[in-house]
Design brief:
Shape: extended
Helix content: 25-40%
Distance between the termini: 116 Å
Largest sheet: 5 strands, mixed, barrel
Strand order of the largest sheet: 1-2-5-3-4
Low-confidence stretches: 1-5, 18-32, 406-411
Mean pLDDT: 79
Structural class: alpha+beta
């Protein structure tokens, strides 16, 4: 986890592990991009060899520089030191020391006796740290006011970040611009508004994304803000070699440029494409000329179609296409693409077999059966039962109507007596019987 995920306070100390500026896991903390583990720290130097007096010191947003320990101070990783700057001094944290600094110097092509390597003044006192913290507190407000001044002047540039020097006497304004900008009036306005020394530094869009950080489309932190140091040129040819659609929304990163990861597997694709024929190669068949449509590099398959009749595509293997090209070079015409397509034998994919009576490993990948099917079956059974009941009822009704028609019309239908009349008749009969 880097400092973009676990937030840091104004002094640069990570809030997650509470290590007060020196990262406990060596992978988080302020500006710990490309944190190096000093695996030579427990090893003693040979007799008579003095320790290397150059240290790597980190500043805000992963900015690192090399400084000499001319005063022979006792320093270790994580110490906050005051170093030389122009003008005044700056405050930083030691990120690496010892023999591994030689490797970093060689990697960044910095000579040991270079004038770029300045010196370390002292270990930072509490007063130095207080001034540094107060300067860091003013960065957000300075950036906001700086953007207001930019909008008032109407300059076509974007102010991405502000970094105060450790002594608070100078501020560096990082900006991005597509064109050349005349910011002389802007520096005057900044100097009068903030009363400090102003330094303007232009950065590219990739460098801006590396400083600000973020989450990429892959779900992980940006490569440029975690481990990537050199920004190589990326062009659309890398996407074409990998058979990717040239969609700028999918190929561009947070910086608006093409993604750096397009170059990661480019060499592998170029090696695989050496076996494939050129895409402008035309196959000569008896039915006409066949042209290339697309390919599958991993399965080594190619799709061709007839130039005059391009409605159907024919899938061919790489060996078949190379065979057809060889025959065409000998002035021989192949029969047709249909014959070659019919010769392709598709390999049967062997899935996991349940040989010991256990559950399948892919049981969670199976789609769940919808409950609507059961409901539909119930509705179907109900509707079928209703139709049968209706049919039987209609038959019985027809029978009753037939029986009514066959009865004679002379027999009148007896009228149904009322219940009260029936009771009265029974009472009268009982009284007559008693008498």
């Amino acid at each position: 986890m880097s400092c973009n995920s676990c937030s840091t306070d104004k002094s640069g100390a990570p809030k997650g592990c509470k290590s007060n500026g020196n990262c406990g896991t060596d992978t988080c903390g302020s500006g710990s991009k490309l944190a190096v583990f000093d695996w030579l720290s427990n090893m003693t130097l040979p007799n008579g060899q003095a320790p290397f007096n150059i240290y790597e010191i980190r500043f805000k947003n992963g900015r690192k520089h090399f400084f000499k320990n001319t005063e022979n101070l006792t320093l270790s990783m994580g110490d906050v030191v005051a170093v030389e700057s122009s003008p005044g001094h700056d405050i930083g944290t030691i990120s690496l020391g010892g023999e591994l600094v030689k490797v970093q110097l060689k990697k960044k092509k910095v000579a040991i006796d270079s004038e770029e390597i300045k010196k370390i003044y002292r270990k930072a006192s509490q007063r130095d740290i207080d001034i540094w913290q107060s300067a860091r507190e003013k960065e957000i407000e300075t950036q906001r006011r700086g953007r207001e001044i930019l909008g008032r002047l109407g300059l076509k540039m974007k102010l991405s970040d502000v970094e105060y020097q450790g002594d608070g006497n100078k501020a560096t304004f990082y900006y991005t611009a597509d064109e050349r900008v005349d910011f002389r009036q802007l520096i005057r306005d900044f100097a009068s508004a903030f009363s400090i020394r102003i330094e303007m530094k232009q950065v590219g869009l990739r460098q801006e994304a590396a400083r600000l950080g973020g989450i990429g489309s892959c779900g992980r932190e940006l490569c440029c803000s975690t481990w990537l140091t050199d920004f190589r040129k990326v062009n659309t040819a890398a996407a074409r070699y990998q058979q990717l659609s040239l969609n700028p929304l999918k190929l561009s990163g947070q910086c608006g440029k093409l993604k750096c990861c397009l170059n990661y597997e480019l060499d592998t694709y170029l090696d695989a494409l050496k076996e494939f024929p050129k895409q402008d190669t035309v196959l000569k068949t008896e039915k006409g000329l066949a042209v290339f449509i697309k390919m599958d590099i991993f399965k080594k398959l190619l799709w061709y179609t007839y130039k005059d009749n391009s409605f159907k595509w024919f899938k061919l293997s790489l060996d078949q296409v190379n065979e057809m090209i060889a025959l065409n070079k000998n002035n021989e015409t192949v029969a047709s693409l249909e014959e070659y397509e019919s010769d392709i034998v598709e390999e049967v994919k062997i899935d996991f077999k349940n040989v010991v009576g256990q559950e399948s490993l892919t049981r969670f990948d199976r789609p769940k059966q919808k409950r609507n099917r059961k409901r539909n079956n119930r509705n179907k059974s109900k509707s079928a039962a209703n139709t049968t009941n209706k049919k039987s009822f209609q038959k019985n009704k027809n029978k009753r109507q037939g029986n009514k028609n066959t009865t004679t019309e002379q027999q009148p239908k007896p009228k149904r007596k009322h219940k009260n009349n029936q009771r009265n008749e029974r009472r009268n009969d009982n009284k007559n019987g008693q008498k």
